[in-house]
Amino acid sequence: xxxxxxxxxxxxxxxxxxxxxxxxxxxxxxxxxxxxxxxxxxxxxxxxxxxxxxxxxxxxxxxxxxxxxxxxxxxxxxxxxxxxxxxxxxxxxxxxxxxxxxxxxxxxxxxxxxxxxxxxxxxxxxxxxxxxxxxxxxxxxxxxxxxxxxxxxxxxxxxxxxxxxxxxxxxx
Length: 172
Fold this sequence. Notes:
Layout: H1 2-16, H2 21-30, H3 33-36, E1 49-51, E2 55-56, E3 60-62, E4 74-75, H4 78-84, E5 85-87, E6 105-111, E7 115-129, E8 134-150, E9 153-159, E10 166-171
């Protein structure tokens, strides 16, 4: 009998994952106490998220004229990008800056304040939440003091058809 209730509960969890939290709460309340006892995960169901592919761009730097990071981390055109970044080509294989096609791609950029510490910004994930927001998660790795200052940044390419307001999330 308990296995039947557990099987029913698991099937119900899959069905309820698409309901609103209010609808889920009403159904959970109406379940018998013995069945509801086996369904505590219903309250912990997270909204669906979709992973968005991205490419980290290489061989650029933040221009000295940039005092503050832009209010919107999403860059959709060459003119805005060129106001913020300069190309930093080096000799050798893979020495050219990443090519960006603004007709088909957008850039998401995280620009940190100037620092004299060795600092690296590392991408963690980019997901589109059920509410339509794009959440770009990154991690900041801080090292030793340097004798000069730098302007750490991280920029990634995404397909332009991926829509949504970008939210930056620093992971600690």
